[in-house]
Design goal:
By secondary structure, this protein is an alpha/beta fold. The protein has two domains: 129 residues, Rossmann fold, CATH 3.40.50.720; 111 residues, 3-Layer(aba) Sandwich (Rossmann fold). Helix content is 37%, strand content 16%. A seven-stranded parallel sheet has the order 3-2-1-4-5-6-9, with helices on both faces. Strands 7-11 form a two-stranded parallel sheet. A two-stranded antiparallel ribbon has the order 8-10. Helix 1 packs across helix 8. The protein starts with a strand and ends in a 5-residue tail after the last helix. Bound molecules: NADP nicotinamide-adenine-dinucleotide phosphate. NADP nicotinamide-adenine-dinucleotide phosphate binds next to helix 1 and helix 4. The site of NADP nicotinamide-adenine-dinucleotide phosphate has 23 residues, from helix 1 and helix 4.
Length: 282
């Protein structure tokens, strides 16, 4: 049995669908089972982190999403070991880049702390370290729904966004196949795109002429990043600033592990990312 936390999320839902498609026994955890709408092959359970033992009953593997498990991550890992779980695949972050990263960055600290908890748990582990999700484009959805201009910082910020299903595909292989214990997988999309180019791509997909208008970073507030917890906003802006005009790290890990090349931003046109960006009225 594979237990998936964060199962209704961008990565988690794609992972549950992939595991079910491969006939793997899967238990998907969510705070709202009634709204989850998972494929019928998945068992669904309410995420009750104050009673973790029953969540892990019969489990051998765990997909760990630390946003969902929060400050109960340690308790969940203890319960996992007690229940007989052998292997944890953790959705971490490419912000951890040993020796090359800013160890004071709050997002780095958040993920590094959880990685250490996993290492300390005594369970076998695999860390997935994606760098920039394509779903981050959803930050622009509210503006795109009401007009053709998108305001934000760092027009030249350059990333290699990765499709959520490509992360899920790697997670599925790490959970199902042998050989991923102790591995750290750095995950990116296949090509660099600037903020301006992402807006243009979304415009092409929607059949609209979208324009990006740069806002000085000191004038950026939570309204432009509705999906980001306000406490994380300065950290996010700091990360963006570091990518402006810089060629991003690009890995081929998705293709190496899954046998399928990672999707580009434009080939993601039919993906969750762009569909969620569409105005409901279109
Ligand atoms: N965005 C990036 O560029 C980036 C880069 C590197 C790493 N990451 C990592 O990826 C994660 C995001 O993955 P994702 O996009 O798949 O997640 P997501 O869709 O934002 O959320 C996944 C699920 O977690 C549950 N959840 C969210 N907030 C919660 C909370 N406060 N308490 C309990 N449950 C909560 C929700 O499920 P229910 O409502 O069904 O319970 C949600 O559907 C981040 O946590 C970060 O660790 C992101």
């Amino acid at each position: 049995m594979i237990v998936v936390t964060g199962a209704t999320g961008n990565v988690g839902r794609a992972l549950v669908e992939r595991l079910v498609a491969e006939d793997q026994p899967v238990r998907a955890l969510t705070r709202n089972p009634g709204r989850a709408a998972f494929p019928s092959g998945a068992e669904v359970a309410r995420l009750e982190l104050d009673r973790p033992a029953h969540l892990l009953d019969g489990a051998t593997k765990l997909f760990l999403h630390i946003q969902a498990t929060g400050d109960r991550t340690g308790g969940l890992l203890d319960a996992a070991r007690a229940a007989g779980v052998r292997h944890v695949v953790m959705l971490s972050s490419g912000i951890i880049d040993e020796g090359a990263d800013d160890e004071t960055h709050p997002i780095r600290i958040w993920h590094a702390t959880a990685e250490q908890q996993v290492r300390d748990s005594g369970l076998e582990w695999t860390f997935l370290r994606p760098i920039s999700f394509a779903t981050n484009a959803l930050q622009w959805a509210p503006q795109i729904r009401v007009g053709d201009t998108v305001h934000g910082p760092f027009a030249e910020a350059c990333t290699a966004p990765i499709h959520e299903d490509d992360i899920a595909a790697v997670a599925a292989r790490a959970l199902i196949d042998r050989g991923h214990s102790g591995a750290v997988h750095r995950l990116t999309g296949p090509e660099p795109v600037t903020t301006t180019e992402q807006i243009t791509t979304i415009g092409h997909t929607l059949g609209r002429d979208l324009r990006f208008i740069e806002v000085p970073p000191d004038q950026v507030g939570p309204d432009l990043f509705p999906h980001v917890p306000p406490s994380m906003l300065q950290g996010i802006l700091k990360s963006f600033a570091a990518t402006a005009g810089v060629h991003p790290e690009i890995t081929t890990t998705v293709e190496t592990i899954t046998g399928t090349p990672a999707r580009t931003m434009s080939s993601s046109g039919s993906s969750v990312t762009i569909r969620k960006t569409l105005p409901a009225t279109l």
